Each structure stands twice: as C-alpha cells, then as structure tokens.
Amino acid sequence: MDHLFEITSPDNDSFFWSAPEAYRHQSLLIPSMSALAVSGGWGHMLFQHRQQEDFTIWYSTYCVEQRRRFKVRADVPVIEFSFLLRNSVMQQMNSLYDKLVEETQFNIFYLPYIEDRVSFEPGLPYTTLDIHCTPSFLQKLEPYYPGVVHPFLDAIAANTATQVFPQHLFATQNMVFLAQWILRLLRAAVVNNLELELAVKLLLCAALECKTPLQLGGRIITLSELSRVNRVSIQLLKCFTREPNLRILARQAGMNETFLKKLFALRFQQPPYRYWNTYRMDEAFTRVISTDEPLTDIALDMGFSALSNFSKTFKKFYGLSPVRYRK
C-alpha cells in the first residue's frame, strides 16, 4: 500500500496504511474519489482525493481517540487552499504559522515542501477540504485579482514559502455553501467536471475576494474585522426559529452593534436581518416545493407563530402562497 505522505508522532505511534475499512469508513466514502486510510491505537484517518487536469480536491476526515500530536511531511511543492470545515486544531504549517485554526477558517499557501504539525483533541471528528492547484490554474484568476495573485505567483516562481493572508480568515456563509456544492458534485453518480471546475474557481475567487480592501467611514477595514464579519454571516444562519440577536453577535465579534450593522451591509450588500430573512425564506421555499411536510411544520421551523403569518411573508417573497405553489 503506497503512502500518500509520511506521518510520525513524538509518542512513537504506529501508522498502518490500508484501503478504507467498511465498518469505519463506508458512510464517509465518496465513490468518485480515490481513498486511503491510516489507523493505529490512537484512532483513524481517511484521505480522499480526486485529480483533475489543473487541480486536485482533497477531502480528509480525522477521528482521534487520544490526545495526539502528529507530523506530516512530503517532499513535494504544493499550492494549497486549505479549508477547515469541522472543529478546531492547533497547527503549524512549515515555518509560516503556529496557531489555533478554527472551524470554517481558510488560507491559501505555497509550500516548497509540506511539513505540517497538528495537535488533535480526543473524541472530536475533524474534516478538511483542500484544493491543490497548478500555477496555470491560478493564472486564470489573475485578471480578476491581479494585486493578489501576481505577487503570489512571483513567490512561487522564486520557490519561497508564502501565504495569501497573514493569518487564517473565517469564511463567509457563501464559501461554506460552495464547499458543500463541491462535495455534492463529487457524490453524484456521474461527476460533471465542468461544473466541478466552476465550483472550485468560485470558491477560490470568494477566498481571494477577501483580500480586496474595504473602506468604511474613511478608514480601511482590517483583515481581522473582515474575518469576524464573515463569521457573523455563518452564525446568522445557524437558527431560523428566532430572529438573530445582533447585540450578542456584535459582542462575540468584538464590535459595537452599530459598526457591525454598517460593516455587514458593506460586505454583503444588505443588512444582517434582511440577509438572515432571505436565507430563511429560501430554505422555506425549498421545503415547500420539494417535500410533503405539513406547511404548519415548516412555518414553525422558520420561526413563524402561525401559518397565516408564514403564508403572508411567503407570498410577499415569491408572488404566490405556499398552498398555491403546491397545487
């Protein structure tokens, strides 16, 4: 069994590479991707990847039963978009950074070789979506983000380890949706390669867009502020049963409520409540037209106290009542 890369640990753990094991990995497997598993007394990992012409998609899951530190090394250069989808890890990537990478954070790197040190907490499942691409693939995006992509490509040409952002940023909810879209495409019976490439480009563009300077009230928004408002866009959509509490979200983001509202509207072209309500009604619309769930249940799940209120709002958004849509 070929190893994808070398894994070691200071605890002298053993690492056994194998094909995926049915009792552990069957529910995680994506048929369109190649897969290898590694296991030991510490737990198990599953690495899946799909090679396209100019990029490779990696979908990795980690189930560690004991607190462990692992070192991963591969003597190959890599351009990597790294997206942590689930749970947070302490990670050191080459000499670029050593910090806690939190759930839904991302960055884009060039590494002359891979040397990754990761610390896992026991009993937590971790999931990552990574995209490794060629310089020519990035060059296709350069016309849209020349100030970001051009210096990054220069560093690659000089074989210098670099990253687009000085620290990991929180993704937007749209980036999470794009990652989910990529995984849905990969799970399809027949993978549409054109659509898959489009989804990958859109995800990378959404990441690069975060480097575009924003100004509010005569000053430039910092990357830290941008990252925190990105995170709010995800937190807003975690619950549709009640209206979001912007005061709490602002406090969690380390901002005052007024500044959060202004920055959110600048970043997403609509105020936080309208953003939340639009996604809420889109979710309701999907359930109305694609399921047989009782409309009252959908209304309650969307935070409406009565079906009449839900029907009125639904008609305002979509022109017809939910009952008419189902006829």
Provide the descriptors you would attach to this structure in a database record.
2 domains, 5-stranded antiparallel beta sheet, Jelly Rolls, globular, single chain, about 325 residues, about 40% helix
Gyration radius from CA atoms, angstroms: 22 Å
Question: Helical stretch count?
Answer: 12
Question: What fraction strand?
Answer: 25-35%
Measured distance between first and last alpha carbons: 56 Å
* Contiguous uncertain segments of 5+ residues: none
- How many discrete domains? 2
Q: Class by helix and strand content?
A: alpha+beta
Shape: globular
CATH superfamily of the largest domain: Jelly Rolls
* Relative helix content: 25-40%
CATH class of the largest domain: Mainly Beta
Let me know the number of strands.
16
Largest sheet: 9 strands, antiparallel
CATH A-level architecture of the largest domain = Sandwich
**Average pLDDT rating:** 93
CATH fold title of the largest domain: Jelly Rolls
Following the backbone from N to C, one meets helices and strands in this order, namely: EEHEEEEEEEEEEHHEEHHEEHHHHHHH
Give an overview of the whole structure.
There is one protein chain. The protein contains twelve helices and 16 strands. It has helices at residues 22-25, 135-139, 146-157, 173-187, 193-209, 223-235, 246-253, 257-268, 272-290, 295-301, 307-318, 322-326, and strands at residues 6-8, 16-18, 34-40, 43-51, 55-64, 68-74, 78-86, 89-93, 97-101, 105-111, 114-120, 124-133, 162-163, 169-170, 215-216, 219-220. The mean pLDDT is 93.
